[in-house]
Amino acid sequence: MSLSQKHTGLLLVPWFNSEEWRYAFRLIYSNYREKQLEALDLLKMWKLRTPILCTGVEGTLIVLDALLIAPESMPIENLSNIYAIALMRFLNLSAANADKQGLFTKTSVKNDLPKWLVNLRHDVAHGHRLPSFCSLKMGLDFGLAWLKEKYWEPQSKLIKDYFVEDTPELDDQLSSSLSAYFAFNLALCDKDDLDAEYIESIAAMIYKKFKKRPNEPQEIANYLLEMVKERLNKGLKIPDWCLDELITSRVLLRPHFESTENGQAIAEEFRDSWAKLLSAFHQRGALFNIIEKLHAIVANISISDTTKMMAALWINEIMVSLKHLNENKNMDGLLNLEPSRYTYIVEFFNFKLQALVHLNQFTKYFMDSILDYVSDADLNDSMRSLTSAKTNTEGLHSIKANVWMPRDLDMEIGCSEDEHLAESSRPEKIVASSKWTKIESGFQLLNGLA
């Protein structure tokens, strides 16, 4: 919900929250065709949700829809007709947006629409021939800029979210459902036996809800997941404590590793067992929040290496799956996430810079997948080089194994007998009478070379 310009109180709107609205704003005025096409899809989705859009959004949809038609897709005469209709509709909306209706010219002047644009509309409406294609396009370009000044920029300062507070009863229901689902899912992964009395109490809860009494643990887990999803969908915002309960060393970060040809990975069965729950969070746009919390684990120096390794591997699994999902690629062998309208492109662009600030030996397990997800070739190459230099502890071990330094040497340093060499280029000879010793610290050497 957001605050209306004309009405006091709250107004139901078709965008999910103010961030989605601002995301559309950024895409529309990005000057990149691909991003504007994404914005157009978003506006059309809003139109499906709410057929009668506010004037600013409706006008933007009309103008952008026309401007993004590829000129080579049709004859110029047909495109001119589309531009003319779009311009007429846009101007009728814009000049009619007043409390009192009057002459079109007076209303247009009041709304800061230039006279040449009004004349262009008159020629479209009453002339025997359409204005030139260039004139029509110039009119639509002006309209898009006018909408930015009159609608998008002012609204960006006013629009804000209104959240309905979740009731304690709903929190209790969600907490009990999540705890039960965690217990059953982990028991299935670990091949553990659950207490018969506990199973019976959960089965009774499921029967009360679905009028069905499941017997198999997997069937019980599936019903519990449905209860979790139902309760998640009742709130406008996923409670932060839900994610905190999931991202712990006793649930999602419980050690389940397997060796692959590419190194350590999360055990496939354990990974796949959480796919449906992670998909449920993805449907609500919370997957980026999960990534942020996992990265906080990776960056926390007080947490065990095993837990940090699991967190880093989960970031990689989620990022690779999102990349394949967005590109409609085969998901075999990956975390099988379900499609969602959320892409998190802007969030991950900022996140990769944040990840670079907190480099450690676990960053290398997910940095490539982060960089692949957000395309910026020049920046990504630089970040890969820096990540490799900062996190490649194996390279430091190699230095420690192969570089030696003299300790307490009796050295005789003299000039070469080649007197014809310039003073600055004379080679030196070192005569050592004691043993060389291995350096104790690779970092000490690097600091010495810096």
UniProtKB/TrEMBL annotation:
One of its GO terms (molecular function) is endonuclease activity. One of its GO terms (cellular component) is Las1 complex. Signal peptide: none annotated. InterPro entries: Las1. GO terms for biological process: maturation of 5.8S rRNA; maturation of LSU-rRNA. This is Uncharacterized protein. The lineage of its organism: Eukaryota, Metazoa, Ecdysozoa, Arthropoda, Hexapoda.
